[in-house]
Write a structure and sequence with these properties.
The chain is an alpha/beta fold and 191 residues long. The chain has one domain: NAD(P)-binding Rossmann-like Domain (Rossmann fold, 3-Layer(aba) Sandwich), CATH 3.40.50. It has 5 helices and 10 strands; from the N terminus they run βαβββββαββαββαα. The longest helix is centred in the first third of the chain and has 20 residues. The radius of gyration is 17 Å and the shape is globular.
């Protein structure tokens, strides 16, 4: 069984490209959503063990177009700006790439108990908005803000190798996937 979870179970632990968050880290959810996902993972694991069912938890990073940046954009949108001038960087995956990854995993035997799911390389949120042609402002990041959260996808890449390779996360490619799906928000027709 494959169960969709979230990278939110890692909480506020910073993960950088140099030291990404790997699947064996302790869970430290920082909000109710992350806590609910961590509880779901624990209960699913207990049930799978009791029933003798193989279970692979997919800790999915940000899905482009269904995230708070592209999916939540509104006029007046504001991003944090860190001392280096950059906006937050996060692990992302395009929606079609996510579907391809899940399809490939379903065809593979002996999946590990947990896999992080994202494309390699964190994406700067400002780069996503610029690629989408969306206006935004920036403001100094608060002390509590995390500049980069990168998921370690080494394990995922190894398991997918017989079926597919994961391209590095690219804002323009992810936007092209969104356009193919027709999921971009459209203005409401007043008639």
């Amino acid at each position: 069984m494959i169960l969709a979870s979230s990278a939110a179970v890692y909480g506020a632990q910073p993960g950088s490209q140099a030291t990404p968050l790997h699947e064996d880290l302790p869970l430290r959810p920082a909000n109710p959503y992350g806590q609910a996902k961590a509880e779901m993972e624990g209960e699913a694991r207990r049930l799978a063990d009791a029933l003798g069912v193989d279970l692979c938890l997919l800790r999915i990073g940000n899905v482009a177009g269904f995230d708070a940046i592209l999916g939540g954009w509104r006029p007046g949108f504001r991003l944090d700006r860190f001392a280096d001038g950059r906006s937050p960087r996060r692990s992302y995956i395009g929606p079609l790439m996510l579907a391809d990854v899940i399809a490939a995993l379903l065809a593979l035997p002996d999946l590990p108990p947990v896999l992080n799911v994202a494309q390699p390389g964190p994406v700067e949120m400002a780069a996503l908005l610029r690629a989408a042609g969306r206006d935004f402002a920036t403001a100094a990041a608060p002390q509590t803000a995390i500049a980069e959260v990168a998921l370690d996808v080494t394990r995922l890449t190894a398991f997918l190798a017989p079926k597919m390779s994961l391209p590095v996360a690219d804002p323009r490619a992810m936007l092209a996937e969104i356009a193919l799906l027709g999921t971009e928000k459209k203005e409401q027709d007043p008639s």
